[in-house]
What we know:
It is built from eleven helices and eleven strands. The protein is α/β, with parallel strands linked by helices. Helix 3 runs parallel beside helix 4.
Amino acid sequence: MQLIVTRPALEAQAWLQDLSAAGHTALSLPLIDIASMRDTSQLAAAWQDWHSFQAVMFVSAQAVRMFFAQRPEDTALGSTPCWATGLGTRRALLQAGVAAHCIFSPPDNAAQFDSEALWDVVQANLTSDKAVLIVRGRDSTGLGASDPANIQGAGRDWLAQQLQARGVPVQWLLAYERVVPRWTPQQLTQAQTAASNASVWLLTSSQAVANLQLLLPQQDWSQALCLATHERVAQAAKALGFAQCWTCRPVLSDVLETLSSQHPRIGL
């Protein structure tokens, strides 16, 4: 079975290796590229205030990498809590040097890795005297710096709304930009072929689905198959026209189990 890995190129490598080791053909077709912020002054300011935050929430592994790339050499991490919604973000925090006891995230057996699952973990210990910093990315849309979307970035604001409802101050920090990748002619051909040859697309974000439509605006997806890591992503894929879409957690064992259980329906 051929699987199309759509994560950013850096994150895709581990998935390609693991899927190949499991006996599948895996092809990388990134649907999001990651770019550094041209102005890093806000990142520097956040590091100066590191110890003043009640917690720092990272929306993705990319947010961790881009934020910690700007860490001053003389800044000790101390005991500032770091929040993560998923396993990949938690691993990135550990690799960045954050102590395990300072990382709060949904348990490995959580039904979903999202803001709601994280909220169940962190809500009991909140106070209203210190801010929670949310480190995230934005989509490169050319918006002016004064536009609120440029300040808050893209992504679901559910967690921030829960915090504010509890009287907890929330601050936003943009650590990177998500851009539509520039596919080569070969990649475009590979994607067009994978839309109709029973390949299974691994889709991990709604923005990736939106970028797929931008890259192949005339493509017919009525024969395409996908495995989405959240119901919201599955809904976006169905809206684009994917014939069949299954959901599972973004964990290799779950991906393999879902593929195995759907094997007769996929028709391979």
